[in-house]
Amino acid sequence: MTSSSTSHPARKRVLVANDDGIFSPGIKALALAIARIADVMVVAPDVEQSGVGHGITFRRPLRFKHTKAAGFGEIPAYRVDGTPADCVVLGANLLGRPDMVVSGINLGANMGDDLTHSGTVAAAIEGVSLGVPSIALSQISNGGEYDFAAGADYAAKLVERVLREGLPPRTFLNVNIPPVIKGVRVTRLSDHRYEDTLVTRQDPEGRDYHWVSGKPRAEYAGDTDFGAVEDGYISVTPIRMDLTARDLMNQVAGYLPEV
């Protein structure tokens, strides 16, 4: 009599990063939720890195330290004294190539033109540059308070689906979660940006210092990320890394000056 055993596919490996830092409640909720369906490794900045964009550290060494203080339980967690993109580079090289990179859950939205300076989105972009399917997740607060339970639960479902279905090369998903969730929409990027202003003041010694401030401006159409979140829907925006304006190539070629 021959015995047979049922083989089970190995669990996928997900690298979780963020820009709010290793101690953010958003990354903790996200990692614990994804751990239900995949093997998770957390690699995050040791301090907040919001707004650093897709910066990579070249001019100094980086520290990569295991930490048990952030409350991830049995999930291996590491802190890096660098940017969100640094975290993905170090995590993928020191812990092994993941099957997916998931960044978040960010404290606050990342919509429209905010993507160009978001550290949360940058971690997903770095995952894409490594050829790994990636998702960036952000959540809007409810009067300054965050409850990540529903958003993290949806994130785990989305991660499971993308692990199974995949994403086209050089694309990722940018997800924004409202405080109270009515449903989910696939959206386009809104014309949502900050009109920058500069506030100049003086310190006690009479020397000028400057604050970059900004007044938000947004497009509220229902098919946009901002409009969906305003209506109470999770916004899922597919983003392509190819920024080439192909429709303008012939026009630009027509007026280029000769060398």
Describe this structure in words.
Its main location: cytoplasm. Residues 14-195 form the Survival protein SurE-like phosphatase/nucleotidase domain. It comes from Deinococcus psychrotolerans. This protein is of the alpha/beta class and 259 residues long. The chain has one domain: Survival protein SurE-like phosphatase/nucleotidase (Stationary-phase Survival Protein Sure Homolog, Chain: A, 3-Layer(aba) Sandwich), CATH 3.40.1210. 24% of the residues lie in helices and 28% in strands. The strands form 2 sheets. A 9-stranded mixed sheet has the order 3-4-2-1-5-6-7-11-8, with helices on both faces. Strand 5 (100-107), helix 3 and strand 6 form a beta-alpha-beta unit. Helix 2 runs parallel beside helix 3 (119-129). The termini are far apart.
Low-confidence residue ranges = 1-8
Categorize the overall geometry: globular
Tell me the span between the first and last alpha carbons: 81 Å
Overall mean pLDDT:
92
Major sheet: arrangement of strands: 3-4-2-1-5-6-7-11-8
Provide the CATH superfamily: Survival protein SurE-like phosphatase/nucleotidase
The secondary structure category is: alpha/beta
Which CATH class applies here? Alpha Beta
Q: How does the major sheet shape up?
A: 9 strands, mixed
Please tell me the CATH architecture by its name: 3-Layer(aba) Sandwich
Strand content: 25-35%
What is the CATH fold-level name?
Answer: Stationary-phase Survival Protein Sure Homolog, Chain: A
Radius of gyration: 20 Å
Q: Determine the fraction of residues in helical runs and give it as a percent range.
A: 10-25%
Number of helices: 6
Number of E strands: 11
SSE succession: EHEEEHEHEHEEEEHEH
- Number of domain units: 1
Enzyme class: hydrolase
InterPro entries: SurE (IPR030048), SurE-like_Pase/nucleotidase (IPR002828), SurE-like_sf (IPR036523)
Subcellular location: Cytoplasm
GO molecular function: 3'-nucleotidase activity; 5'-nucleotidase activity; exopolyphosphatase activity; metal ion binding; nucleotide binding
